[in-house]
Every structure is written in C-alpha cells, then in structure tokens.
C-alpha cells in the first residue's frame, strides 16, 4: 500500500499548525521578517538549528513535490518557527506521530489502519487545541471541517465537533465594557437579570440569558467576542498574506479565492444589525411560503456587536437520546431539514442560510403541531446569500440530471453553473454530492454511503485529487462555494441523525424542489411567449406538469409506505 496519501496528511497537518500559529508570532516580529523567503536568520538564533530545519522542509518538498500547502509556509516562516515554543512543540508532535506510525511494522493491514486511526485522533486533538487558542476565523474553519466527513477521516471530523458550540468564552468584564462602549449603558441598566455564564459560545460570539428591564421578557443576548475588534483585521491580513505567498511559490495551489470570500463574508457576520435583518427576512419568507415546523427567534433590538432576541431553547439535532425519549421521529426531522434548506436554495427570492452546522440548529418538542410533534429552531443568521434566478434554475436542472444519472445533461449544467470542463466534471460531481463519481454514473445517488466509499474518497485526496480540488474551487463562482458549504453541512446533519430510511427520501424531496423550479421556469417562458394558446407552449406545459407530477407522486407514495411501515413496526 502506498504511503503517499498518509504523508500528505502529515505535511498538511504540520503546515496547518504552522499557519495558525503565525498570528501570535506577528505580535513579536515585524512583517518584514515574516514575508520574505530570503530574509536572514536573526543573529541570536543557532545557525545550525536553522539549517537543519530548513533542510528538513526542503527534503520534504523534494521527496513529495505534490504535497503541499504549508510546506511553503514552513519555508517562508522558518525564522518565526524557531521563536515559538507552542509551534515547535506542535510541529514536533505531529511530525513524530505520523512518521512513527507510517514507518512502524505491522502484522496486518487492519493493525496498520488501527494505528493510523489512533494517529489521526492524536493529531486532530492537537490541531483542535491550536484552533481554540487562535479563535476567530480559525474556529470557523474548524466548524466547516467538522462537517466534511466525506473527505476527511472520521477521527478529525468528530474531534472538531465541539467547535460548533463549545468554543472559548469571553469574560463578563470584557462584555460589560463592550456594553458601555456600544450602548452607553451598563448591563444592569438594560436587564433586570443577566446570567454571566454563557449558554453557548461560538467562533464570533457567545449567548447569555437575560431578562429585559422594560418588559420582563426572557431573552437571549448574543454578544460578539470583544477581542475580535483587535484580531479580525490581523487574521484577515494574515490569511491574505498566507495564500498570496502560497500562490507565489506553488501556483497550482491557488487559495486566494478563500481569503477573498472571507474578506467579503466576515465583516457581514460581524455586523449583528445585518444578522437581525436576515433573521426577519427568513422568518417572513417561511411564514408565507412553507408549512415546515421552522422557528426563528424574533429580534428585539440589535447593534453592531450586540443582538437581543426572543429566548427559544432546544437540543442539538444529533442528540439522538433526546429525540428517541420524546418520540420525535428522526426520519421526520431529516425530511424537515431537507424541506427547509431546499426551499432556501430553490425558492424564488428565498434567503440562503450558509452556516447550518449542528450548533446553529436545535430541536424542541411541540405536541401542538398538527403534522409534527417538534419544532426546528434556526439560529445565527449572520451569513446569508441570495442565489440569482438563472443560476438557481440551472442548478435545479443539474440535480435532476444527477438523480437520473443523465451524464450528458450533468456535464451541460455543470458547465452552465460553474464553468466546469469535461476533465473537471467527475471531481465537481463528487464535490456537490459527497459521493464517489462511479456511484453517480450507476444511478446509486440515493443509496447510503458505505465505509468503503468513504475511505475511497478520503484516500483519493492523496492520489493527485487535492491539487485538482484546489484548482476547481478557485474557479467556481463564490455563490457556488457557499452552496457547496451548505450542502456539506446539511449532509453532515442528516448522516448524524442515523435515520432508518436512508437518503432516499431526502433525494426525493430535493427532486421535488428542483422539479418545481424547472416547472416555474417553463411557466415563465409560456407567459412570455403568448400563453397556453400557442400550440408549442401547450406541449411545453404538459411536459413540465407531467415531470412535476411524476416526482410528486413518487414522493407521496414513498412517504405513505414509510408511514405504513412505521405503524406496523417494520422500521
């Protein structure tokens, strides 16, 4: 078995640590020390040690030139590396762990895989500590990594789950100072009660329970981490510098698109007034267009760094014990999530929530509902996007082609949606579906992913796919990246529910919304070209209506069968 995929994990992990720790190094050293490959080592650093580390990094590149990313950072910032004890410790620990694991003799492939899984776990835990220490945008990155189970080893994704809602907290003293600076009032002047312990902490903010002094209403108070005002500009500058440096030395690993997206999205997420507008808009949209049991807390008032909203509590959607104890059907939760997020993607003028990880969604029991006995609560509306109409329609046609395993149309609409070439198509198809392309070609999209398929996709990153994936993500429209991110997160939510029905129903729901979108497009064309009296328009209407009705019937029959099986105890 080739070791190169595993070595890529080693190099990527080490470089990840190096990149994240640069922020603390910026405090001690000037930018000119960091930015140039040919900068001299400071006189007080042992030249022999410097030479040894530089040689090790260069040797890594020469032995495995396709491995990546932050070897460049390691070379560019060798000087900085020597100044930071945490960085040296992490780098040494990660490197030793992987090298010892890869070089040790094992009696069988199973024993080797077990050793590698243990190594993944240890290295993921080290990386978690670095992410938590650096906070801010790095925790955002870890949150997304936690949902990428179709690409990353399970040991990494599960280790990063605490980043979704158990991040480091800011002190109540710093929160008090921020209240005075932003509102001109102390906390006790606005709230008759304010719990100093947050009920949840995320990458950019934490939430406290309070009681409004004026009305006596119990509220959730979302407060931004005060330190972000100091760190975010530096984090963004560091990200831009890091990726531009990577592009300089490794043009094939162009990640500047990622820093550009962060430059655009992070300021929006840090303005809670925009989040309040997004929450109100999403709430109004779903009240008018959907009967899903979705609850979005009402906003009382908002300032740039403080958001006061209705207090509504629930449990994480992957709290299976809570769901089972309260007789909440996991399959119905899965289907409801599918309805909500497909409505956001395919609905006309629908706002798209682009950060639906497990910490931003909650479930509560609600026996008063007619069709369901639960509510889905949606939090954190800081990152929203609107999908242009033409893109939404082409994206719907792409998914219908995927479901039907219609490869010619899959290629056609991949090109229209994201400018994908025929050579890039298999990788893009896997990226949007989270499935091995061979499964898509055989019309197996609605089957559950096996362990073998997951391992195959993870291993493929080490066989040249990583570079192709980076290039692909660099060229697609930014809105497609956010749609892919939303797909990743909702797919992860669904898999964590461990439903009995598998993914068949969720794909039928997706097909319903995609078909509805295509039907609406055909109706617009009919109205624009003379109405139903035109003979070709009538035929177009019949074709569109038949396709829509076919999917509706499939879903209705399938849901009826599921209901019968459930009542008969067959599920």
UniProtKB/TrEMBL annotation:
GO cellular component, one term: mitochondrial inner membrane
GO process terms (BP): lipid homeostasis; mitochondrion organization
CDD domains: ADCK1-like
Superkingdom: Eukaryota
Chain ranges of the ABC1 atypical kinase-like domain: 163-413
Family: Belongs to the protein kinase superfamily. ADCK protein kinase family.
Protein name: ABC1 atypical kinase-like domain-containing protein
Organism: Petromyces alliaceus (Aspergillus alliaceus)
């Amino acid at each position: 078995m080739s070791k190169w995929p595993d070595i890529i994990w080693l190099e990527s992990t080490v470089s990840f640590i190096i990149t994240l720790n640069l922020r603390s190094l910026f405090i001690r050293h000037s930018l000119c020390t960091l930015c140039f490959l040919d900068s001299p080592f400071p006189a007080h650093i042992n030249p022999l040690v410097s030479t040894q580390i530089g040689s090790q990094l260069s040797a890594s590149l020469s032995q495995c030139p396709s491995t990546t990313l932050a070897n460049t950072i390691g070379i560019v910032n060798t000087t900085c590396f020597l100044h930071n004890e945490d960085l040296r410790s992490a780098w040494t620990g990660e490197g030793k762990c992987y090298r010892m694991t890869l070089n040790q003799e094992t009696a069988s492939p199973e024993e080797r895989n077990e050793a590698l899984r243990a190594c993944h776990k240890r290295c993921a835990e080290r990386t978690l500590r670095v992410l938590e220490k650096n906070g801010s945008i790095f925790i955002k990155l870890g949150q997304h990594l936690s949902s990428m189970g179709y690409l990353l080893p399970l040991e990494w994704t599960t280790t990063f789950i605490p980043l979704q809602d158990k991040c480091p907290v800011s002190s109540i003293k710093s929160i008090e100072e921020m209240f005075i600076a932003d509102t001109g009032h102390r906390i006790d002047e606005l709230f008759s009660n304010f719990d100093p312990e947050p009920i949840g902490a995320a990458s950019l903010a934490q939430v406290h329970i309070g009681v409004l002094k004026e009305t006596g209403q119990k509220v959730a108070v979302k407060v931004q981490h005060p330190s972000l005002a100091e760190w975010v500009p530096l984090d963004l500058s560091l990200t831009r510098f890091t990726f531009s440096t990577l592009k300089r030395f490794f043009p094939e690993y162009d990640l500047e698109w990622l820093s550009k997206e962060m430059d655009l999205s992070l300021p929006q997420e840090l303005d809670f007034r925009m989040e309040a507008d997004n929450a109100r808009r999403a709430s109004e949209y779903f009240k008018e267009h959907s009967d899903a049991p979705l609850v979005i807390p009402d906003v009382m008032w908002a300032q740039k760094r403080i958001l006061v909203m209705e207090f509504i509590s629930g449990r994480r959607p992957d709290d299976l014990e809570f769901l089972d104890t309260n007789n909440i059907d996991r399959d119905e939760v899965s289907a409801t999530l599918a309805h909500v997020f497909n409505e956001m993607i395919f609905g006309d003028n629908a706002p798209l929530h682009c950060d639906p990880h497990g910490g931003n969604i909650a479930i509560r029991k609600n026996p008063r509902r007619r069709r369901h006995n639960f509510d889905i609560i949606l939090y954190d509306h800081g990152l929203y996007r609107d999908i242009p109409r033409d893109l939404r329609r082409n994206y719907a046609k792409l998914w219908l082609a995927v479901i039907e395993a219609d490869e010619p149309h899959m290629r056609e609409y991949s090109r229209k949606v994201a400018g994908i070439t025929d050579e890039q198509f298999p990788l893009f198809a896997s990226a949007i579906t989270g499935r091995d392309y061979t499964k898509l070609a055989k019309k197996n999209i609605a089957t559950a992913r096996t362990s073998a398929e997951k391992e195959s996709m993870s291993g493929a990153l080490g066989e040249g796919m990583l570079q192709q994936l980076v290039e692909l993500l660099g060229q697609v429209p930014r809105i497609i990246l956010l749609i892919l991110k939303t797909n990743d997160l909702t797919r992860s939510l669904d898999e964590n529910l461990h439903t009995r029905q598998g993914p068949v129903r969720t794909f039928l729901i997706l097909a319903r919304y995609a078909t509805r979108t295509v039907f609406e497009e055909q109706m617009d064309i009919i109205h624009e070209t003379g109405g139903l009296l035109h003979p070709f328009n009538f035929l177009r209407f019949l074709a569109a209506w038949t396709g829509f009705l076919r999917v509706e019937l499939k879903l209705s029959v399938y849901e009826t069968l599921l209901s019968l099986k459930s009542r008969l105890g067959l599920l």
